[in-house]
Specification:
By secondary structure, the chain is of the alpha/beta class. It folds into 3 domains: about 130 residues, Rossmann fold, CATH 3.40.50; about 120 residues, 2-Layer Sandwich (Beta-Lactamase), CATH 3.30.450; about 160 residues, Hypothetical protein af1432. Helix content is about 50%, strand content about 15%. The chain contains 18 helices and 11 strands. The chain has a 6-stranded antiparallel beta sheet with strand order 8-7-6-11-10-9, with helices on both faces. The chain has a 5-stranded parallel beta sheet with strand order 2-1-3-4-5, with helices on both faces. A hairpin with a 2-residue loop joins strand 6 and strand 7. Helix 11 packs across helix 15, helix 14 runs antiparallel to helix 15 and helix 15 packs across helix 16. The radius of gyration is 32 Å and the shape is elongated.
Length: about 500
């Protein structure tokens, strides 16, 4: 990226200093500043700039008026307007007047970098075309460049699509090595986690998975500088020990300013060195993978905190009724046994793990006099009990995700013949995980002592499940239950 000369126009000296610092220290640009639109007009009349950044709200001459005047003086000079989030409409109007882009306060460094790179490249290209009469050669070169950029876009899209589907960080560790070796055509690749002064290789191609001490290796440079390192011939190969006979490329994975992992690529299949384009692709892969790993970790933290909170509610419910202690845990275990026999998808098993434990969370709204009543319930009391699936659904609904789990909570009392509650669903209109939980829930209820009756024996409960198969229960699910350890009376749950 060629360095550019940039003019910053803003009546706030702090904004000028901040933006100037970003452009100088990170992009290596030369900068001038102007205090308002009139000052800016004087600057562009005297000097040439690759980009002009201008605030919209300024004394003497506003940013919009500066833009109109600047386009008459230097039509080809790109102007980027600076705006606050509350005045985006003004920035859009400025773009209608000819502004090339806009940035909002507070600035994001990556956004500034992207805009500067794009606009300076376009500025240089425009100058090259206008100064060179060999248009056929230029067009041919542009077509080749366009084709290369389209290839890069396609590669980056593939990277994003593949990574966005992975929620298990262990799988990401494996996939990034495979993706990197495929994209850069290397025979040797690895990804390792930084732990206690070592790099613990989690996945490797063309080398061994092992733990490598970081001290004294090029990994130490990568960690200390928080930047990639392209090793020269003759340096020590940290994978195996002997001097390098081919390029060795190490890329840090950074979260919150700390290096937590390193991707290593070496020994290109064609024996060549890594090109700038290949380095760019590898760095993009690392950046996106690190972001995916961080998002997965944050999601897992959020998920675990949420589960623990909701489990506390369930424990509160079960503590009110000693007869149902650990009921939710047992039901979830039985349901997962059935799920294994029926070979359902992993995401459905995950829904059972979460929703199964919380299936009775709505009972927190049921009065103790009803929940713990030793005798037969009245019609009104039965209506109150039958509200708990809907109440449980409503408790989980504001979370926004967990669609399958919410349905499991709502519909685990539906009957296969359509006579269940709360929605009267029948047959395959009832989600499979709900049909599975219904069998598990009923079996545990029958084999547990309740305030109004003693527990049934395993044999009696199985007879009841078989009798109601096809009416209250899905016959296929009931038969699957009979194949489980619990169904055979040997459950360890």
């Amino acid at each position: 990226m060629e360095k550019g000369k940039i003019l910053i126009i803003d009546d706030d000296p702090l904004i000028c200093d901040l933006l100037s610092g970003i452009l100088k220290n990170i992009k290596g640009c030369t900068t001038d500043t102007a205090v308002d639109g009139l000052d800016g007009i004087e600057k562009i009349q005297k000097d040439k700039y690759d980009i002009v950044f201008t605030d919209l709200q300024m004394p003497r001459l506003s940013g919009m008026d500066f833009l109109r005047a600047a386009k008459k003086i230097e039509p080809a000079t790109p102007v980027v307007v600076i705006t606050g989030c509350s005045s985006i409409e003004g920035a859009i109007n400025a773009m209608k007047e000819g502004a090339s882009d806009f940035v909002t306060k507070p600035f994001r460094i990556d956004e500034i970098n992207s805009i500067v790179d794009r606009l300076i490249s376009e500025r240089r290209l425009f100058s090259k075309i206008t100064e060179n009469a060999d248009y056929d050669k230029i067009v041919k070169g542009l077509n080749l460049e366009l084709f290369k950029r389209l290839q890069e876009i396609s590669i980056l899209h593939t990277i994003s699509t593949e990574l966005d589907k992975i929620y298990d960080n262990r799988e990401i560790f494996e996939r990034i090595v495979e993706m990197a070796s495929r994209l850069l055509k290397v025979k040797e690749a690895s990804f390792g986690i930084v732990e206690n002064g070592n790099l613990k290789i989690k996945r490797a191609i063309g080398t061994r998975e092992r733990t490598i001490p970081i001290s004294g290796t090029l990994f130490e440079h990568v960690i200390n500088k928080r930047d990639y390192y392209l090793a020269s011939f003759g340096e020590v190969n940290p994978h195996s020990g002997p001097p390098l006979t081919s390029p060795f490329f190490s890329i840090p994975f950074i979260i919150k300013g700390e290096v937590f992992g390193i991707l290593n690529l070496a020994n290109k299949a064609d024996g060549s060195e890594f090109t700038e384009d290949e380095i760019s692709i590898a760095l993009t892969l690392a950046k996106k993978a690190a972001l995916r790993i961080e998002n997965n970790a944050l999601y897992e933290l959020f998920y675990n905190n949420l589960i623990n909170t909701l489990k506390s509610l369930v424990i509160t419910i079960e503590a009110r009724d000693s007869y149902t202690m650990q009921h939710s845990e047992r039901v979830t275990g039985f349901a997962l046994e059935i799920a294994e026999v029926m070979k359902i998808a992993e995401d459905e098993k995950d829904a059972i793990r979460f929703g199964g434990y919380l299936h009775d969370i709505g009972k927190i709204s049921v009065r103790d006099t009803v929940l713990l009543k030793p005798g037969k319930l009245t019609d009104e009391e039965m209506k109150e009990i039958r509200l708990h699936p809907v109440i449980g659904y409503n408790i989980i609904e504001p979370i926004g995700s967990f669609k399958s789990e919410r349905l499991l909570i709502r519909n685990h009392h539906e009957n296969f013949n359509g006579r269940g509650y709360p929605d009267g669903l029948a047959g395959d209109k009832i989600p499979l995980i709900c049909r599975i939980l219904a069998v598990a829930d009923t079996y545990d209820a029958m084999t547990s002592t309740r305030p109004y009756r003693k527990a049934l024996s395993h044999k009696a409960a199985i007879n009841e499940l078989q009798r109601c198969s096809g009416t209250q229960f899905d016959g296929e699910v009931a038969r699957a239950f009979l194949q489980t350890a619990a169904g055979r009376g040997r459950s360890v749950i």
